[in-house]
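Batch manifest line 415
LIGAND: calcium ion
JOB: complex structure
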Amino acid sequence: MHNCWIEYDHTSDFSLYNLPYGVFRYDGRYGVGVAIGDQVIDMTAVAHIEQFQQELKIPAEVFARPVLNDYIAQGPAKHREVRKYLTRELTDVQSYLRDHQVLLSQSDVEMVLPVRVPNYTDFYSSRDHATNVGKMFRDPENALLPNWLHMPVAYHGRASSIVVSGTDLHRPCGQQMPKDAETPVYGPCRLLDFELEMAFIIGKANELGRPISTADADDHIFGLVLFNDWSARDIQKWEYVPLGPFLGKNWGSSVSPWVVPLDAIEKFRVPGPAQSPEVLPYLKYEGDRHYDISLEVAIQPDDMDETTIVRSNYRHLYWNMAQQLAHHTINGCNMQIGDMLASGTISGPTESSFGSMLELSWAGKKDVELVGGQKRKFIHDGDRVIMRAFAQNNDCRVGFGEVRTKILPSHKTKS
Ligand code: CA
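JOB STATUS: finished
ARTIFACT:
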């Protein structure tokens, strides 16, 4: 156990073992920050310390950008050096950092979307989630489609509507086909849902035409965030055959502001599920490539306390990040720095671990009870949906903070 000269509570998500990156706005400027306890290390200030410049040789302006992309482009070896530098300096009571103004309080800064996201892909990698959806909408006996156990199924989402925690979203309007109706109607979505996901951010590009192997995958991953893939179920249900999700999904996805590096969760690696039938050679992998990360979802209606309604775990995924990345690039598709690849809804085997209202209410057939007596089948206007994630053992805690979003009423449209 290291001693850090910045004091933080043992329950803090942002321990010395974490050192996640984000971008803050403070006093009219942007800066790359690293969270520790309830503070932010202002890397724009660190970048001007002579000792840092001599050791790391990273241009100071890289840390003064409104996104992490230029810092990410420095490459995984540089990120490791910065992590090593910060760990060393934060445990050295005589650190140079103490002579400079490098700390800001998290309560004084505004966190912004940490990366410019060129492309967003959403996988569908939880077997329990895919099975639940298959049972509800297709065939209870053959819930999984024939391809599901052979490849990490995914679709290309829309990057422009990815927003940071704290950004309110309006209930979308769109076409729906009500049950027993003959023609579709237009109006506000009535089956508004969240999807509990994690997303990884690409840290190193690959050339068009050159796949990334499962063995090389980690080198291409900068870190992870919590990801709420908002879904308008009624719009989705009517539109998605035959080309897949569109307007039911692209009106908003919310992410947590702190990007947790893969190195920070290294000690939380766990074995994945046995994969049967045997996967094709390009999807085979060595070692433990899943991670034990606890996940929670809470709902907080206006003027009410929050209720935790889901407790799941990232380890429940059938397909891991290395397999997702290998599959995504097996045809030569090129990844770009900042691309977000989301996991798909992470449901576990028990009802309390289902990662969407669709599953919790079993397509609207039952109520989810909230403290104070309210009930929900789907999300109401004024509700805040809060997702949290953390990895923890006896020695340390590495948390992701939270992604928190309030749903506002639909905008009125001119007809
Ligand atoms: Ca999704």
